[in-house]
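Title: Prediction job returns without error message
Component: structure pipeline
Severity: low
Priority: P3
Assignee: unassigned

Description:
Job completed but the reporter wants confirmation the result is attached to the right record. Sequence as submitted:
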Amino acid sequence: MKVTSCLLPLCLILIAPAVLADGWSVGAGTGPFVFGKFVSRTSRIATETSVSTTTLRLTAATRPGLAVDLERSFSERWAARLEGTFTESKLSVRGSGSGVHLDAGRMNVTSWALPVVFTVNPHGSINLQIFGGPAFAQYHIHAASNGSLQPFNGSRGRGGAMAGAGVQWWMNRSLAIEAKAQDIVTASPFERGDFPANTTGLEIAKPHNVHTTLGIRWRH
């Protein structure tokens, strides 16, 4: 969060001049970022009388994050945004029903999205919006040894898409309180080659990174 706390004021300083023109607005918010499953490994355990399975999952903990965006309106209903989100989360390996919970390091995620925004009801003080578009996430991972699902150390960028919805309450012409929920889906930052060749039962999933934020929007 130290990095994200520095990035937010910097982003606001850089984009503030643009919102002095009509049709532009700037938004900022914070809230919990929920990360999906990255990697899982299922193993079969056979005994004389039965066969059971156990699954280990490499996941990231829910953590608060920051989101800032610059929006350009083209009509009452249509707009486009450039949005950046920043968060840091702990990685862990968890076992299904086994009580396994191992520290796997930490992960910094910076994501960028360029959604098209549609306002359902542009008139009135409360506006409902839906949006979606392409996205890109930069994953920077600091791994800790955990045994069978040790992640790599380093950075990887992954492309994908995002979609979400939000509501704005305009307290006056210039200032609104804004709540948003969105899902960014990208290719996994992990690859099959990151794990030993003899690792069986491995599944690498596309993570669903769900961001829920509460913040403000300001327009000139």
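Comment from assignee: result matches the submitted record. The longest strand covers residues 78-95.
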